[in-house]
Write a sequence for this structure.
């Protein structure tokens, strides 16, 4: 059944900017020592904005570094890095990002040159791997280690603030600020901290507005186009240039909506993707695009909105307006908001009712016809409750596809099985099977380079 072209297609101008900013970040890490900057490492949720108060630094985030090892270095680094970890006795079901990063460290190799030695470790222990991951790193390089432990969140299935958890995290922030002054010998500038947190707040506000524009038909953006922006949002949003990038993306997205511009000429179906993708197999989104299926977003997009939204009754709604008036103005306000962000990010993963509500609300807001749930062997946290959520969504009449993968270990990937599942999923929603898999099979067995 042929589908006639319906929409105008134009390249997303800010996409190249986002990818260039990502590359620039890795360059900053590799040149940090020769330029006299502090080099700090830790996980993506580490509170690197707290470093802003002591001056110039570069932050080597573990997860984006692991993605780089898998993507940019898949031919010469990915397998040796994974095997290097296993040879030292670490289990293969350990967090995939941990294994890719630590393996690269053990080998002393990166896609960009020798593995750099950090000055110290700052991590956030928000799951069962992150704290131990960077303890291994600190021990390997014999450098100081500071770990901020997340507090408790609510358990009522609503986006509510748990004051005990917020106070617990905030106390650790103040402890770190005292510690880092003693370690570096530098005075701490509260205004620089506030400025960094304000950048993070405003970046999320722009992100919320961008995602709300995704409800338009046709969707102005798609999942794969959003990936480099997601990386900038989560890893480097304390930087002023990321704030400018997200403002530009918001404005360009508005332009695309106003002019009916889409990333693909046909939009037969709209679906969501839950969880981070297998980074070595992003061609699965190309496969969906070839079937005229728009992947309008995923859990790693909407889970960042709530800390800047006007949530009136504790119920998450993606289309609720962002709260531009809530920007922190003092050190106390900045630290409290950062602690709230930490609690919110854990609530969605830990509470089944809240995760289900987020997912169902996003499906409704983005006018999706169905959802793809990834059962990620590389991250138990993202997969938590997915089996229950699958059944609940199906009971609500929402088509659901499930596939197993590992976000950073290509040895646990079977494209033929995933493609067959996708065919059945799409066929159940009226998209006929085609020869696309055969025609593209030889071209999409390795990661696409962009």
């Amino acid at each position: 059944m042929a589908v006639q072209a319906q929409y105008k297609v134009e390249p997303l101008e800010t996409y190249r900017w986002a990818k260039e900013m990502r590359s620039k970040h890795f360059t900053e890490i590799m040149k940090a020592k020769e330029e006299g900057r502090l080099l700090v490492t830790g996980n993506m949720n580490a509170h690197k904005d707290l470093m802003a108060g002591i001056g110039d630094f570069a932050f080597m985030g573990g997860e984006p570094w692991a993605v780089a090892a898998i993507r940019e270095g898949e031919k010469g680094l990915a397998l040796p890095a994974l095997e290097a970890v296993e040879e030292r006795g670490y289990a293969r079901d350990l967090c995939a990002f941990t294994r890719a990063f630590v393996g690269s460290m053990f080998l002393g190799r990166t896609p960009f040159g020798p593995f750099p030695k950090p000055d110290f470790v700052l991590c956030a222990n928000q799951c069962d791997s992150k704290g131990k991951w960077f303890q291994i790193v600190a021990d390997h390089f014999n450098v100081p280690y500071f770990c901020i432990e997340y507090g408790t969140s609510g358990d009522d299935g609503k986006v509510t603030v748990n004051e005990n958890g917020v106070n617990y995290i905030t106390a650790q922030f103040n402890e770190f600020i005292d510690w880092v002054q003693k370690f570096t010998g530098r005075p701490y500038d509260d205004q620089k901290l506030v400025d960094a947190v304000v950048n993070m707040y405003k970046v999320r506000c722009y992100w919320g507005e961008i995602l709300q524009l995704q409800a338009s038909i046709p969707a102005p953006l798609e999942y794969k186009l959003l990936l480099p922006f997601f990386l900038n949002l989560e890893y480097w949003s304390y930087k002023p240039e990321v704030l400018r990038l997200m403002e530009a993306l918001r404005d360009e997205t508005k332009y695309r909506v106003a002019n009916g511009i889409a990333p693909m000429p046909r939009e037969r179906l709209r679906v969501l993707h839950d969880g981070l993708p297998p980074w070595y197999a992003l061609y699965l989104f190309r496969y969906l695009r070839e079937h005229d299926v728009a992947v309008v977003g995923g859990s790693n997009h909407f889970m960042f909105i709530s800390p800047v939204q006007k949530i009136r009754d504790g119920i998450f709604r993606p289309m609720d307006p962002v709260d531009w008036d809530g920007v922190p103005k003092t050190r106390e306000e900045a630290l409290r908001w950062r602690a709230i962000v930490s609690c919110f990010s854990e609530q969605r993963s830990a509470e089944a009712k809240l995760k289900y509500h987020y997912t169902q609300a996003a499906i409704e807001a983005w006018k999706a016809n169905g959802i793809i749930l990834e059962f990620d062997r590389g991250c138990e946290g993202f997969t938590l409750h997915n089996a229950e959520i699958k059944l609940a969504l199906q009971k609500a009449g929402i088509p659901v596809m499930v596939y197993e993968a590992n976000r950073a270990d290509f040895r646990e990937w079977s494209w033929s099985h995933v493609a067959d599942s996708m065919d059945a999923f799409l066929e159940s929603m009226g998209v006929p099977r085609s020869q696309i898999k055969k025609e593209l099979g030889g071209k999409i067995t390795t990661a696409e380079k962009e």
